[in-house]
From TrEMBL:
Organism from which the protein derives: Halobacillus litoralis
EC code: 1.11.1.6
Keyword terms, alphabetized: Heme, Hydrogen peroxide, Iron, Metal-binding, Oxidoreductase, Peroxidase
Name of the protein described by the UniProt record: Catalase
Family statement: Belongs to the catalase family. HPII subfamily.
Classification via SMART domains: Catalase
Enzyme category, top tier: oxidoreductase
Cofactor(s) recorded in Swiss-Prot or TrEMBL: heme
GO annotation (BP), single: response to oxidative stress
SUPFAM superfamilies for this protein: Class I glutamine amidotransferase-like (SSF52317), Heme-dependent catalase-like (SSF56634)
GO molecular function, one term: catalase activity
3'-histidyl-3-tyrosine (His-Tyr) cross-link site: 336-359
InterPro entries: Catalase, Catalase_AS, Catalase_clade2, Catalase_clade2_helical, Catalase_core, Catalase_haem_BS, Catalase_immune_responsive, Catalase_large_C
Length: 678
């Protein structure tokens, strides 16, 4: 991070406390002389109630946990900054989207949705991608996910969705998983979920890292410019490293090997200076074109195909600082889609409308009252003034006798600001109609975009979808629910449904399918960016390795941004044939091939049979997960013995004219799907 502190960093500075070398005190500042023993009536006597230090310490401990989020409980966050590439003044008057000279501080929290705070991070699930912009006009929260659509169209059904998704109430299982009866029973009986389920069963639901997943605002919002002209907008975050995923077997194993895999990846990348970057994109539709599409632009279960409404890249966010304290920042941050600034407004998306109520209501119970905005992580960088007073957690000290509007004792201040003075003015949309509990006819096509998604997938992505449906529904005990799902998705694709129906013991449908032939290449991860930068390679070394050759390769890897960790059979160092030494980062016992993007096998002249056996296990597993595998010297023999040589993405120093260069290309490719796995 640069030495120039952002306004948010300067604001937080007053709350940072370094207690190194300090005396212990009570919360009132009183120095204490003993922190090991409570105050007693005699050495073996009862503890005295007057022990105020014990009572304060224990009371604080008893109240250290706050209710975890009902959804998005498992999260991790980082600070960053946003830079605008070009002014959007033709669309909006929001200052941070029109002034290219400004850098806006941000705070981003990534999360899983279904699991509890202690669940694993590589489960199949939607990922939250929520961003708080600390603008000079107030905080703006873009509260989104890594999937651009949602399960339901109306917020009144959100409690039902979450109840069905969460562990089943009669036995509290399964944790952080959608592979169970109540979830799929909900899907079968709420068919608006068809499109979202396609995304959730795709590779998008098992991302490689937070750094390599897209983010979406999900809803249709409104941009309003200085002249009052309105445009509909969808927001996108595009990772500079591209959008990449795990494979399912790998994701399950990572859960057992490292439940903190995603947060560790984000934390370490920032600590190493490999700052995650995301470009902000917008899709814009003029208000007068609202009804020109074959879908309703306000329907949260629909995308705007990028081929029809291109994404315009307008800025970039860089995450460049880890949090100082996970509880104070990551857990206490309060996002709300209703936190907007002038120039950004809402639409009549019924899911969005419900969220505008729900988020404030949630923070009241989680954070103990109405003053959660005064917590350091939530405070805007601009001053705030109003007549709100008191309540749990109040930090502001208001000396004025006046706390009401209108008044004369304080010159009728604070008072509203005009639009010219920066006051927020809601877009004056004309609204009329009867009070009804109903759904627009334009929201009732549930299968066309699910079919569009299927049509857009590459062959290996389609295979992954079939396997995901087969796994998830294979965990469903109710045959009736399985049959309902087969019938439901026969409206999306017969190819898909016939394949997974066969796998779950349900008679495959013979009729159905979709007449949608259109595809959208932007939906497939096969069309994403590929780069070796920040990829993590495991280097398998034993004593007696070729020091000169290995070092030359490592130097080339480093020049391409690849991070390397040395794996051997013992901690300490390994020694090369030129007396060079390398520190061992992990042993075969303390790491696993699933924790790396690729493996580079070298070995050494002093390896034994046990070493070779362990190395072969690592190589075979990486190969099975379609990862790049490289080998030189003794490692070449391992490739031959395990019949891995000659396969796609397997680079042998015996055959490569430029081993380092070819291996880097293989690493950049991420996976080698044309590999034949026996």
């Amino acid at each position: 991070m640069s030495n120039d502190k952002s306004k948010k960093d300067e604001q937080l500075e007053q709350y940072r406390v370094d207690d190194t070398g300090k005396h212990t005190t009570t919360n009132q500042g009183l120095k204490v002389s003993e922190d090991e023993f409570s105050l007693k009536a005699g050495e073996r006597g009862p503890t005295l109630m007057e022990d105020f230090h014990f009572r304060e310490k224990m009371t604080h401990f008893d109240h250290e946990r706050i209710p975890e989020r009902i959804v998005h409980a498992r999260g991790f966050a980082a600070h960053g900054e946003f830079e605008l590439y070009k002014s959007l003044e033709k669309y909006t008057k929001a200052d941070f989207l029109t002034d290219t000279s400004k850098k806006t501080s941000t705070f981003v929290r990534f999360s899983t949705v279904a699991g509890s705070k202690g669940s694993s991070e590589t489960v199949r699930d939607v990922r939250g991608f929520s961003t708080k912009f600390y603008t000079e006009e107030g905080n703006y929260d873009l509260v989104g996910n890594n999937i651009p659509v949602f399960f339901i169209q109306d917020a009144i059904k959100f409690p039902d969705l979450v109840h069905a998704l969460k562990p089943e109430p009669h036995n509290g299982m399964p944790q952080a998983a959608s592979a169970h009866d109540t979830f799929w029973d909900f899907i079968a009986n709420n068919q608006e979920s068809a499109h979202m389920v396609m995304w959730a069963m795709s590779d998008r639901a098992i991302p490689r890292s937070f750094r390599m997943m897209e983010g979406f605002g999900v809803h249709t919002f409104r941009l309003v410019n200085a002249e009052g002209k309105s445009h509909f907008v969808k927001f996108h975050w595009k990772p500079v490293l591209g959008t990449h995923s795990l494979v399912w077997d790998e994701a399950q194993k990572v859960s057992g090997k490292d439940a903190d895999f995603h947060r560790g990846d984000l934390y370490n990348s920032i600590e190493d200076g490999d700052y995650p970057e995301y470009e902000l994109g917008i899709q814009v539709i003029p208000e007068e074109e609202e009804f020109k599409f074959d879908f309703d632009v306000l329907d949260p279960t629909k995308v705007w195909p990028e081929e029809d409404v291109p994404v315009e890249i307008v800025g970039k966010m860089t995450l460049n600082r880890n949090v100082d304290n996970v509880f104070a920042e990551t857990e206490q941050v309060a996002f709300h889609p209703g936190h907007v600034v002038p120039g950004i407004d809402f639409t009549n998306d019924p899911l969005l409308q419900g969220r505008l109520f729900s988020y404030t209501d949630t923070q009241l119970i989680r954070l103990g009252g109405p003053n959660f905005h005064e917590l350091p992580i939530n405070r805007p960088v601009c001053p705030f003034f109003n007549n709100q007073r008191d309540g749990y957690g109040r930090q502001t000290i208001n000396p004025s006798q006046v706390s009401y509007h209108k008044n004369s004792l304080a010159g009728n201040t604070p008072q509203p600001a005009s639009e010219e003075e920066g006051g927020y003015k809601h877009y004056q949309e004309k609204v009329e109609g009867h009070k009804v509990r109903a759904r627009s006819e334009s929201f009732k096509d549930h299968f066309s975009q699910a079919a569009l998604f299927w049509n857009s997938m590459s062959d290996h992505e389609k295979d992954h979808l079939i396997q995901a449906f087969s796994f998830e529904l294979g965990k469903v005990e109710s045959v009736a629910v399985r049959e309902q799902i087969v019938e439901m998705f026969s409206n999306v694709s017969l190819e898909l449904t016939q394949a997974f129906a066969e796998n779950i013991g349900v008679t495959p449908p013979q009729n159905g399918g979709s007449d949608v032939t259109k595809s959208s290449p932007a939906l497939s991860q096969a069309n994403t960016k590929h780069s070796p930068n920040t990829r993590k390679v495991g280097l398998i070394l034993a004593d007696g390795y070729n020091g000169k050759d290995v070092q030359e390769n490592l130097d080339h890897f480093a020049s391409q941004g690849i991070a390397v960790e040395v794996i051997s059979d013992k901690q300490g160092t390994v020694q090369g044939d030129d007396n060079s030494e390398m520190p061992v980062d992990h042993t075969f016992l303390t790491t696993d091939s699933v924790l790396y993007d690729a493996l580079y096998a070298v070995g050494g002249k002093e390896q034994d049979k046990a070493f070779k056996k362990k190395a072969s296990y690592f190589l075979n597993e990486a190969f099975t997960h379609f990862k790049p595998v490289g080998a030189t010297h003794e490692g070449v023999h391992w490739l031959k013995e395990n019949e891995l040589s000659g396969n796609s993405g397997v680079v042998s120093g015996e055959n490569a004219d430029d081993f380092a260069g070819e291996f880097v290309e293989a690493v950049a490719a991420h996976r080698h799907w044309d590999r034949k796995i026996m």
